Amino acid sequence: MKKFEVIRQTILDRIQNGVFGSGGKLPNRDQLVSEFSSTRATINKAMSCLLQDGVIRAVRNKGTFVSAYTIRRAALITGSSFNAPLQSLPYLASALYFMLFNAPAISFSFINAEDNSLWEHIRRFPAVIWPFPGKHDLPKIRKNGNNILVLNRYGKDLNYISTNHRQGMRDLAGKLLSFKKCVNLFYLDIKMPDFVLDERRKGAQDACHNTGINIRFINMAMNFEENFKILQKRIPEKILHRSILLAPTARFTGAVLYHARCCRKIPGKNFFFGDFDNPGSQENTGIRIPSVLQDYKSMGEEALWALPQILINPVQKFIPHNLINI
């Protein structure tokens, strides 16, 4: 990093850590020149970057102050987000991206998550929004991401706006279990390292706790034909009757419904099936499938509100989900 970038980042870190609070006055140019053993031109360049970002403001004849929660420039991480197995319906998240792309007060620059210089780019921005980071990205975000707002992931040491995936699956499973007509619960699982998959799996386990019903996990594939064969083998007609099937994604819905048809079973009557992010089930299949629906529009609105706040205080907020067709 160049000298002015180091100075800019140091001042930004102090703002984020509360050394310089909102509305607080920064040291004058002479004090900064002395502290950083730098030239006035270098200090001016660093301060100019912070002014352009909206992090600080200059008041004539009074000095430079920390802005009251204002950001004009930010980065948006893109790229690997939709490679995850759960993004089988990426149009559902389009409302989220639409909100961010059209933010009237913030100019976003786009950074690809696969860029080899990703973290060097991130350090050049006062604030960053990272939608759907991979599980392998979260430890590094925790360590280096005071200026990063994570979307649809969450954790103790993260700034986040997210669906509570564990609670969503717990609510869906709990609702289906409350019908008290079923003796089996099968969880259609995807065995791969993924934060959301882990959380939804835990939610199903939570719902089964103390119910007397054991949850059985079935490892699914990524295509219809294989999944249909798996269901035929693991959940034959006699077992499907009076069973609950839960899926962390709508990816398996076609195979489940075809298997049910072959077994002459009707969802909601002979067995129950629920999934995630499947708002068009009735339109697409003629069957109202219980589903957890995430509110991406509200997630985007909250993210734009929260982005300036992370310069001052941690932001951790869950966006309420909706249970549909129950």
Structure description:
With 326 residues, the protein is an alpha/beta fold. The chain contains 13 helices and 14 strands. It has a six-stranded parallel sheet with strand order 4-3-5-6-7-13. It has a six-stranded mixed sheet with strand order 9-8-10-11-12-14, with helices on one face. Helix 1 crosses helix 3 (40-53) and helix 9 packs across helix 11 (253-262). The longest helix is centred in the first third of the chain and has 14 residues, at 3-16. It starts with a helix and ends with a strand.
Record the strand order, biggest sheet.
Answer: 4-3-5-6-7-13
Number of domains: 3
CATH architectural designation of the largest domain: 3-Layer(aba) Sandwich
Helix share, percent: 25-40%
CATH class descriptor of the largest domain: Alpha Beta
As a whole number of angstroms, the C-alpha radius of gyration is 24 Å
Q: Based on helices, strands and strand pairing, what is the structural class?
A: alpha/beta
User: What is the element string, with H for helices and E for strands?
Assistant: HHHEEEHEHEHEEHEHEHHEHEHEHEE
Mean pLDDT: 88
CATH T-level fold name of the largest domain: Rossmann fold
Instruction: Report, as a whole number of angstroms, the end-to-end distance.
Output: 55 Å
* Stretches with pLDDT under 50, minimum 5 residues: 81-89
